[in-house]
Design brief:
This protein has 166 residues and is of the alpha+beta class. The chain folds into two domains: 1-90, no CATH class; 92-166, Signal recognition particle alu RNA binding heterodimer, srp9/1 (2-Layer Sandwich). The chain has helices at residues 14-35, 42-59, 143-157, and strands at 3-8, 61-68, 73-80, 83-85, 89-90, 94-108, 117-130, 134-140, 161-164. Strand 3 (73-80) and strand 4 form a beta hairpin.
Length: 166
Amino acid sequence: MTVYSHAYVNLFSSWRFLGLLLIVAGLFVATTPMFFAISYSAKLILVSSISFFLGVFLAFSYEGLQLDFVNKRKREFTSVLGLKFGEWVGIEHLTTLSISSHSRLAQNTPNGITPTLSAVETLFKITAHSTHSKVFTLWFHKKEKARQLGNLMSGHFNVSLQEHLD
């Protein structure tokens, strides 16, 4: 693997979830004449098409980070319908690469006021530092994925991996 892509994707984040809702709404509006005594009209087709295509655009757009191990560079990208946009930037010599775990209380607040569900969530963070600054941070839900990428990066960037896991 020469280029690793890490997407900052959460299916139920605001824009992606709105996109999924718009897709469902577009399909519902398009199929309404099948179930009710309504005829197809230009307005109905226009509304369902706009809703559907805007939903697809939102649902399949996300941001992320790509690492090119061969050329030792990174790119913060925005993916729109599978096309990735962003400039490649060279990575300075990495001095530290660490994996750490962080636990937090995750709450679901559907009405904006009262949390309905709460659970302790553990996230695993890979942080890469150069001599002068933090180069990047990647978050994972699974320890195995974080360790696997950490070991891969350690070998490609020739830096030791420090683990600070609970």
